[in-house]
Amino acid sequence: MISFQTHPNGQAPISSTDKPLTPQIRANGIDVADFTPPRRLRIEEIPQIVNDFRLAARNAIEAALLRSPYIKISDSPHSLVPMRKAFKGSFFVAGGYDREDGNKAIAEDRADLVVFGRLFLANPDLPKRFKLNAPLNKYNRDTFYISDPVVGYSDYPFLEDNA
Ligand SMILES: Cc1cc2nc3c(=O)[nH]c(=O)nc-3n(C[C@H](O)[C@H](O)[C@H](O)COP(=O)(O)O)c2cc1C
């Protein structure tokens, strides 16, 4: 049996219920993954939990910004090469690529495909802009995860809109 006592001071993990998860039998039919019974969260505890998550997220962002070796595995564009070599399927890379280092990753066979997230969001005609080596719209972080279906999603201008 595996015991998951990973919480500070031996506290039970929190949940919306006291009901434990049913033990999971692994594919070999022998190993049983057993889960620590959770503790049901009280309503008055919720603000504290939300604050804990807020602080944890901020710490993680700060650690990543400081380029902690424990957080970031892709400090150099070549650090995924061992994974690329070991993996037999199509290998996609993402995270901070622009036109130039995307092209470089493909030319050096470090990936089969380069994913563009933020640049594509802000540039609906990104392939055309890359082809022409045209200037890019800057993305606006403030509108990344808002619920509006248009603002920050489909309102960035196409090239001809700027002409
Ligand atoms: C506003 C926003 C929404 C995203 N939504 C998704 C998503 O739904 N699924 C997903 O796999 N990645 C999502 N991503 C992550 C991107 O696909 C990409 O991996 C990430 O932005 C890093 O690449 P980049 O440096 O080119 O932006 C999102 C990123 C942003 C900024």
Structure description:
The protein has 163 residues and is of the alpha/beta class. Helix content is 31%, strand content 9%. It has 6 helices and 6 strands. It has helices at 46-65, 81-86, 99-107, 118-122, 126-132, 159-162; strands at residues 14-15, 24-25, 32-33, 39-40, 92-94, 113-115. A two-stranded parallel sheet has the order 1-4. It has a two-stranded antiparallel sheet with strand order 2-3. The chain has a two-stranded parallel ribbon with strand order 5-6. A hairpin with a 6-residue loop joins strand 2 (24-25) and strand 3 (32-33). The relative contact order is 0.07. The protein binds flavin mononucleotide. Belongs to the NADH:flavin oxidoreductase/NADH oxidase family. Keywords: Flavoprotein, FMN, NADP. Residues 80-136 form the NADH:flavin oxidoreductase/NADH oxidase N-terminal domain.
End-to-end Cα distance: 66 Å
Rg from Cα: 23 Å
Helix fraction? 25-40%
Provide a count of the helices. 6
Name the overall outline. Answer: extended
**How would a crystallographer describe the biggest sheet?**
2 strands, parallel
Q: What is the typical, i.e. mean, pLDDT?
A: 84
Taking strands numbered 1, 2, ... along the chain, how are they ordered across the largest sheet? Answer: 1-4
Please provide the ordered H/E string of secondary-structure elements. EEEEHHEHEHHH
| Ligands present | flavin mononucleotide
Question: What's the number of extended β-strand segments?
Answer: 6
* Quaternary structure state of the chains depicted: single chain
Structural class: alpha/beta
Task: List the uncertain runs.
Answer: 68-73
